[in-house]
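Recall that a protein's primary structure is simply its ordered list of amino acids. Everything else, from secondary elements to tertiary packing, is in principle encoded there. The following example makes that idea concrete.
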Amino acid sequence: MVINCYYLFINEQIEWGVILETARWDDYRIAYQVARSGSLAKAGAALGINHSTVLRRIDQLEAAIGTALFIRHQRGYQLTDAGHVFVDNMPQVVEAFASLENRLVAADSDLRGKLVLTTPSDYLVILNPYLKRFRDQYPLLRLEIFATDEKLSLAAGDAHVAIRLGPKPDEADLIVKMLTEDQLQFCASESYIERYGELTRLEDCNDHLWVMPNGNKTRLPLIRSVLDHLDPERVVYQTNGFLEVYGAVEEGMGIGPVPRLHALRSPRIKVLNIKLDQPKGQAWFVYHRDVKHNVRVKALYQFLANTLP
């Protein structure tokens, strides 16, 4: 897509007007990724193209605008003064294009095309059976999923919908709806209970084996409420994801925290009735106000709200 427009950038006391006759939007997008990544190889990996294509598009953009955006170094690409102006203003441009695209998509009432969703990888395994049924209902839709713990920018159009866990998101311009309660519950497999007995009191926690998350997940209040009473030697398996915790618990390696929907789906594990101050967690359906009329987003929300337990 060729952009024929006039941009006026103001940086402190410098005004820079450039008529862009031949520059393409993809060139700007690629240059912005190079600025964020710091090298051609990293930018190419993020965009799914090879570094020679990245270099060619950078050269093409700089020739079109008659200004160098980068200084080439062996250590990577550094910004020129014009490059700094470019990076300072590009986020607003990206958001404007994303907003335009979302409004154009919203104008199409047919349930076909692509719907981009982001959610934590731990939660995707829960969603997949429901997404399959959603696709069965709307077979002309294509789903693209980003399974990550990072928060993608809905304003920049990184995704149409985010399903987030934990506290209610409060970023500006986001519409947030609760989907379901998804509190963690301590569980054990039937095979573990048969061998070691069933834990009913937190005071007896050191008589059992435990499967626990590590890293930042140990800060969760529910996890902390057990770890504070637990001998570290009783933790026999640690991992950075609740999906892996769930798998280890299901195999009988120990007692561990399992999301409620995982526990409901597995006939091999049992929720333990341990008296804890268990804060309830929620799953939130989040989207930018620019896509509030998008029929695909509306359809996905209505489907999940009506089918998730």
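The domain at 184-271 is CATH 3.40.190.290 (D-Maltodextrin-Binding Protein; domain 2). Residues 1-21 have pLDDT under 50 and may be disordered.
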